[in-house]
Amino acid sequence: MRGTIQADISGQLSESYDSNILFADPLDITGETASFDFGAIKGIRKGYYFDGGAIFHIQASAVADYRMHAVHDALVKLHFCIKGGRKSGIPVSNRHFYVPAQHHNIYYFTAGEGYIDFKAGQSMEFIDICLDADYVERLCAIHQHAFSALLEALRSQQFYQLNTTPMLITPGISQQLTQILHCNTSRQLKRAIFDNKMAGLMLLQLEQAQVKKHLPSFTTAEDLEKLEAARNLLILHHHAPPSLQQLARKVGINDNKLKKGFREVYHNTVMGYLTDYKMGLALEMLSSGEHSISDVCYQLGYKSVAHFSRLFKKKCNMNPSQVKRQ
Length: 326
Hints:
Layout: E1 3-9, E2 12-18, E3 32-37, E4 41-50, E5 53-62, E6 66-72, E7 75-83, E8 86-90, E9 95-99, E10 103-109, E11 112-118, E12 123-131, H1 133-139, H2 148-156, E13 160-161, E14 167-168, H3 171-181, H4 187-213, H5 221-236, H6 244-251, H7 255-265, H8 270-287, H9 293-299, H10 305-316, H11 320-325
Antiparallel strand pairs: 1-2, 1-6, 3-4, 4-5, 5-12, 6-11, 7-10, 7-12, 8-9, 8-11, 10-13, 10-14
Helix pairs in contact: 3-4, 5-6, 8-10
């Protein structure tokens, strides 16, 4: 993926560079940092390339009104505005976007030129995850139904946005994004874990958009809050989770509505969701090399190493011992 960014201040071209220069190692999760100073705007740009895309984490401040132009290939962009709010657009198609601080969205842009506007005195921080269409198709292969609209846009090369208005960055999305930016594990396993987290991040964004666009048939906005509270309790007490009945009582919802809510909103059963979460933790703990299989088993609340190993193999397609040998 190649792109050229040009700084345009009052119509004057001041600088351009090939963004591929900054990043060499396709598996360097920590990336590199480069400072920039275009006169009206200065800041720090951190990121890295990998097979399938690139991630850019930019912190900048402007002393004058400023428009930055970016020429790019066709790409899927996961945009997260952390601070300051970002106004951007694609002039040729008359599309303009504003993403407030602490909001996000997913877009597909065909090849062309876009812009980002800065206002005098503004400080901005944002993260852009830019993905090739082929990589996104591979990433979404096991979730084709969920991502059908995005995949159709890629095949027809039509503009796509996940939601018509930006969505608030939830704690779950923030945590997943942080884990992607700091994917610190063995080189052999890094890519598999990285891809898994990237797909998980997109699913979290998709789930939020589905809830935002329409309430599931079973519930009200109040019930959705209770459902989210139930999920948070499961994660908090994953080592010793409450029973389905206890969980329903704790959040003030009946058993059937809780089960139906998990299927419609999280596309899983209550206990299936918990198991998937715990197996994700197990993979991270084992790949770090700091925990034995039995340690991971008991810390996650399993009483039998054999039972834990069977679950792990079913979910991760490998035995825990295979992870330890990597």
